[in-house]
Amino acid sequence: GVHLVEWGGGAAQAGGSLSLPCGASGYDFSSGCRAWFRQATGKEREGVAASDKYGDTRYADSVKGRFTISKDNTKTTLDVQMNSLKPEDTGMYYCAAKCRYYLAFSQSDYNYWGQGTQVTVSA
Questions:
Q1: Mean pLDDT of the 10-25 span
Q2: HEC profile for the chain?
Q3: Which of 81, 122, 111 is closest to 4 using CA atoms?
Q4: How far apart are CA 30 and CA 16, in angstroms?
Q5: What is the pLDDT of residues 25-61, one digit of tens each?
Q6: pLDDT-derived band of residue 73, with 50, 70 and 90 as boundaries?
């Protein structure tokens, strides 16, 4: 089966940076689409960044210019670099793969999910 695992979460101060890698077994990220989602307490899971095998990317408006998702198909991990963090970036971050269409941002469009890694940004 496919297993995704995220790491790198933790605590950061506003304005700081974190990098979240996601590793996969049984799935090749370079073969298709992949994304990062997040879920804050009491809120729905939302897509924050997606990339595809063609090098295209998509970002939620709330993270544009601050987050960068890897699009290098030679990498074995799917990374998201998060800069200029804000308290509203706090949440559980999930890696997702194998979607129904490229650069999808709907949770229901992805087949594979990691367990998530917590990011907490303090003011």
A1: 97
A2: CCEEEECCCEEEECCCCEEEEEEEECCCHHHCCEEEEEECCCCCCEEEEEECCCCCEEECCCCCCCEEECCCCCCCEEEEEECCCCHHHCEEEEEEEEECCCCCCCHHHEEEECCCEEEEEEC
A3: 111
A4: 29
A5: 999 988 888 999 999 999 999 999 999 988 899 999 9
A6: confident
